[in-house]
Each structure stands twice: as C-alpha cells, then as structure tokens.
Amino acid sequence: MSKQINVALIGNPNTGKTSVFNALTGLNQKVGNYPGITVEKKEGICKLPRGLKAHIIDLPGTYSLNASSLDENVVIELLLNKNDKDYPDVAVVVSDVENLKRNLLLFTQIKDLEIPTILVINMSDRMEYKGISIDIPYLEAQLKTKIALISTRKNKGINDLKELITKYKELPAEPCLDASVIDETYFNNLRKVFPNQLLYKLWLVITQDVNFGKTDRATYDKVEDFKTKSKADLKRLQQKETIKRYQFINETLKKGQTIDLKSAKDLRIKLDRILTHKVWGYVIFAAILLLIFQAIYDWSSIPMDFIDGAFASLSEWTKNTLPEGAFTNLLAEGIISGLGGVVIFIPQIAFLFLFISILEESGYMSRVVFLMDRIMRRFGLSGKSVVPLISGTACAIPAIMATRNIESWKERLITILVTPFTTCAARLPVYLIIIALIIPEGRFLGVISYQALTLMLLYLLGFGTAVGSAWILNKVLKMKSKTFFVVEMPNYKLPLLKNVALTVLEKTKAFVFGAGKIILALSIVLWFLASYGPGDNFNNAETIVTKQYASKNLNEEELEQKIASHKLEHSFIGIAGHALEPVIRPLGYDWKIGIAIVSSFAAREVFVGTLATIYSVGSDEEETIKNRMAGEINPILGGPLFNFASGISLLLFYAFAMQCMSTLAIVKRETNSWKWPIYQLVIMSGFAYIAALIAFQVLK
Amino acid sequence: MNTIIQNILVFTALAMALFFLIRKFFWTPKAKPSKSCGGEDGCGCH
Fold this sequence. Notes:
Chain A is an alpha/beta fold. In chain A, helix 19 packs across helix 20 (450-476) and helix 26 crosses helix 27. By secondary structure, chain B is mainly alpha-helical. Chain B is built from one helix and no strands. Chain B has one helix at residues 2-26.
C-alpha cells in the first residue's frame, strides 16, 4: 500500500490557495478573486511521484497566526495540535508574487513552529507585467526552505511543487526567528519551566484563545501561569514580534526581490479611481446590475420557451403512449410537470451565475465590497458583511457560513440574521414566473424591459431590507463590539474561461440536483394527495357531477373538466387547501397557492413545481406551466387569479418570508442556539404576511 | 392486472418519496459535514 502524508495548504486570503488545491487534487472547489472563499478546511487526495499519496487540506485564509476570527482559529488549532489526525507532515504556504512581503509574515510564523514548510509563490505569470524579479536560491537560503514558483492560471510549476512535496523529509525544519528575541527574560523563564517544548508554540498557546485538543491539555494548562502578564503587555509583545518579523522580511527581500516600477504597466490605479469613486462607483455598479438583469431576460427567453414546450409535449406523449392507469398519470401529471417547473429556469440561473462569476474572477467584486463598506457602516454592519450578502444571491447557506471571518460577534450575528433577505437562486423561479404573468413585456424608454427592471428592483428590495433590518438589529441588540475592516484588493484579471464555466456548471448542477430531488419527491406526494381523496364526494364524483349538470347539456369535454375539478376540490390536498384558505384569502391567494406556499417551506423553488403538479392533475391538454397559471380564475373575485395585486403580494411574500428549512438549520448551527432561527422564522414570516396583505388590499 | 401493477408502482414511488423527504428534513445527522455547502452537498437550498 502506498504511503499517505498530510499536506496543509496555508496562506493569506486571496493568494490562490484553492486554485493550488484544485490543481493538486483535480477537484473543483469554488475559487474567486475575492477574499473569504474558504471558511472551513477542505480535503482532497493528490497522487505524488514515486507512489506517494498526499492528503491535501485547504485551510481558510489567514494573515497571521494571531487569530481574530473563527475561520483563522481553524488554522491555529490544527498547527498546534500534533495529535490531530490531520496534523501536517508538510505545510505548503501559498503566497502571491505581488504581496510577498505581507505573505511572508505568516510563512515565518509557520516556519517557527518547526513544521517542514514549502513556500509557493503563486501568480508568477504577472511578474513581467509588474516588473518583479526574484532571486529564488537566495530566498531559499535566507528563509531556510524550498520555493516553488508557480502560476495556477497558466498551470505552470505544479509538477515542481509535487516533486518538492515528495521530498518533504529533506526540508529543513529550522525556525526563521529565535522566539526569545521578542522578550529575552520572559522567554528564558518560559524555557526553564518547559525545557522540552518549542518556545514559539508555547507563545501561541499563551496568546491565542483556541481549543488545543484534549491530549495536550495537561501540558498547556501550566502555561496559564504565563498569562499573568497583563493583556496589554502581551499585546505589546505581539506587536514587537510582528516588528521583528518584518525587519527580517525586509532584510531578506532587499536582496531577494527587485521591483522595477518603470517597467510595470499598471492600469489598476486608473481603474480603481473610477470603479471605487464615491459617485461614479455606485453609478457603474447600478449600470452593471441593470445590464445583467436585462441580459438574463433577453438571452434566456428562447431556451426557456423550448424547455417549457418540450416538457408539455413529453407529458402529453407519456399519456398517449404508455398504458392507461394511475402510474402513467403519476408520470405525466406529477413527475414530468413537477420537474418541468424546475428545469425551465436553468437558462436564467446559468446566465446569472455566469455574470456573478465574471465579476468575481475579474476582481471587481472586491471593489464592490469596498464601495459598500461606506454604506454598511451606517447600518451597523461591517464591510465584511458584504461578502455574505453577495454570496447570498446564490444560497443563504454558504453565505451564512462565510460570516465566520467577521471578528465582532454582534456584527456576525446581525449578518447571519439578515442574510436570508438577499435574493437567493431559489427565489428566482418564483419571481420569474410571477413577473412573466403580471408584468407586461414592453420596454422602459425602449431599452430596458419592464420585466428585467422588476427583477432588479426585487434584488434591490432584498438587499435594502437586509441592510434596513441590520440597522434595527444594531439598535435593538445590546452587545458591545469593536471591529475594523481590512479588505484585500486583488488585481484585475481577465476571467479564466475554465473557472467561469466550472462555477456556472457547479451552480446549475446544484440547483437541478439539489432542489430537483426534493421537487421530484414532493411532486409524487402532491400528485398522490391531489389524485386520491376520502369519502363519497371524491369516490362518486362522476355520478354527483353528472347529476348536477344533467340539465345544462354540457359536452363530453366540459363534463370531464367539471368532474376533474370536483375531484381535486375533494381530494386530500383540496381538503387541506380549503382548511388553509381563510388565512391566505386576504392576501389574494386561493387554496392551490396556499398548498404551494406550505410545500415551498422545504425550498422556495418548490412553489412553481407544486403549482405545475396541482394544475396538471386531471388536465388532458398539452399546456405550458405559464399558460396553465395564466388561465386560472379567482373563484371568489372572478378574473385571473394571478393579477397585478395578487402577483405583487406573492412577490413580496417570497421576498421577505423565511421559506427555507436548510437555512434555519444552518443558523442554528452557526449561533449554537434555536433562539435565533426561531426569531428569524417568526419575524420574517410575520413581516412577509403583513407586507403581502397590505400590497393586495391596496392594489386590488 | 395492469391496474394492480400500476397501483403497486404508484404506492412504491410514494413510499420512496416519503422516506426521502423524512430522511432529508427530519433525520438529524450525528456528525457535522466537514465540507461547506458547495456544489453537491444536498443542502437542498439551491
């Protein structure tokens, strides 16, 4: 059996660790040109030369081993606990060629833990462009390490890195800095008490508030005595340590790295001046958003019409081809219709993520974070809250996890509580179908379609509600906190086609297979509940309806429709829906929408699949979902069920309601309490109900 | 015969669907997943 070693990938945020991880393991973890992509460790296997295997652990980005947030703690906990099964045999510190000085601070700290360490200098393809040259042998000698100069974008140097990992036993484990230079007396005392322990490791145990694991606890408990120095004294020593390290790094880079500013062709400053301008920055951002939503509508209509028609034909074909019976009906009316309600949105979701991925890859997203920080501060949020709020456009779950890099608990909690207001991909199918039904197809000023404009407004409404709620929570929550905001401004890059394509593929796959499985299962259950029912009213529907309409001379088709409608009303789902109707009628909804709202508590996009299933039960015609919904009549008020008033009411309900069980579960996990998700559920759903009620009553 | 087979298939599909939904939403897993909600961890929120 081949030997397996543990390799930890460590580095500052946005140095391309995840790209190195993907290059080594062949996996496709999400990468982006903005910090905070990795908040938990990720693992993969890499085959090395000479039959060796490496278990690669991609750790969250950290600027130093002085942790200030949860994701940074993950790194320290692993490096300080030799008994951890993932404790690295070799640490690979990933740095960015343009920020080598800052990146080396973390490198020297890890070296001082005497872990065999390789320094990876990534983004080497930008050296010429930036006028940077590096004396590798000199740096290797000074830093007592081996260096791999790589470019994950150009796929260069990965094999050299694999070769270096294979020879990890030859790596020197000497420290860069003698820890006692920080404070000789203090460290000499420490050495006397722990003669066999590594001084720098003890120093981290004293200064960092992390969980070191049970096994080493006995040893580390004794260091409590060394915390007797006041907090301010310890902070002063930490600052001294940083200064000493930078003195060493400056000295090393003076000879090891030269930057010829004359040969640097830098567009970045000019672009930053415009894109982060206090007026033009926002105007450009709004224009980009508008362009994205317009393109989503203009480019998706043809494939969407095709998919809609194809599913309607497939349902019809199934009914006509397979033997008549309950299972054929389940396939045609339940499964195919339900799945059609999801698949139809693939083009729009793919286009949305195409644009988001291009913005991330190009480095523009970090400028947006910087721009938004100015606004966020006024509402009690940190600039770092923008990353979760933007990630929330995909899904609230990773977005809530991304709050782990917010240092202040109050700001983190507020961000967790308001992130579900951001318009996630699951809301998109609901918005798109309702907008298609109630907003006319014309164009504003002949350019921007009204439908695209409505969609953009809904996104802004979600973001605005999140920020507004944050302001209220900031006033209501009585917690003290201090925070600072540092954001990495990556260079502008031409988006890599491969990364963009992978993101689009991954997000679309997640949408189809993640939600698809739930929708498939729910479609089966809903079809069953809509096709079976208790008592005579359901079982003798044919006799009852025939008798009821005997005098009205209905043709066969009309009579069949009346029977189907009677059966649906008295099916299990009809009974449940009617019980629910008094609560939702003031919002302009009928019992069928009520059922769709209840089932979509599992996941919002289930709403469309549910309606598609309910409306197709008993229908013999080849109809698209949109046409079926457009043809529904309000049983009480008359006229189309999905009119402007009920449509806006539904849009507002879905904009504000907490319709996602998975999000509640993750909020419970991240806050370690049921209190916050329950507050979130009650307040968001109550607010959604009131907003939808007011909208319908005013507009009807 | 055809009706019986079709009914058996319907009830089998229903049982499988219910089992899937109950397991998904009401079965609390003991161990925390080590990977984040990325592509295919089935968080069901996408």
